Amino acid sequence: MKKQSILAASIITFAVSVSHAQAAEPLELQKVMKELGKNMQFITDGISREDWELVAKTAPLIAAHPQPPMSEKMRIISFMGTEMSKFKAFDGDTHEAAHELEHVAHEKDGQKVIAAFQKVQTTCLNCHQTFRGKFVEHFYGTASK
Q: What secondary structure does DSSP assign to 46-92, as a single string?
């Protein structure tokens, strides 16, 4: 009986520590977001130097960003519940805005590029303001800034 109690306690301790480790481990989505942030900075740099080729080359990297692995997607879908459609809609808006940015960058019209980039920034901001705090709190246990 004593051995069974020790074994049960060990299993419970291990399960709790594994779930805690998973919660603190960065999601692949976080890596995707960091890469998107870098690409946004490249575009800002391209606009400031009127390097329309850089803007046109970088915009598709935002539109067709990598997806997290299926196991992580399932965790996200489970967490999002009924808000998943809204999350996907924000992603679709960003995809479309980034493709528009690529198109106008080929025209080499700075005003159009800036307007298109503003749309990309707005789609990102809309999603972040709606979901970032919830994601950070749920998956990492801390409130976002």
A: HHHTT-HHHHHHHHHHHHTPPPPPHHHHHHHHHHHGGGHHHHHHHHH
Q: How many domains does the chain have?
A: 1
Return the pLDDT at 12: 47
Does residue 116 surpass a pLDDT of 90? yes
**pLDDT tens column, 25-56:** 788 999 999 999 999 999 999 999 999 999 99
Domain encompassing residue 56: 26-140
Report the CATH number that the domain containing residue 60 is assigned in CATH: 1.20.120.10
Residue 41 C-alpha from the chain's centroid: 15
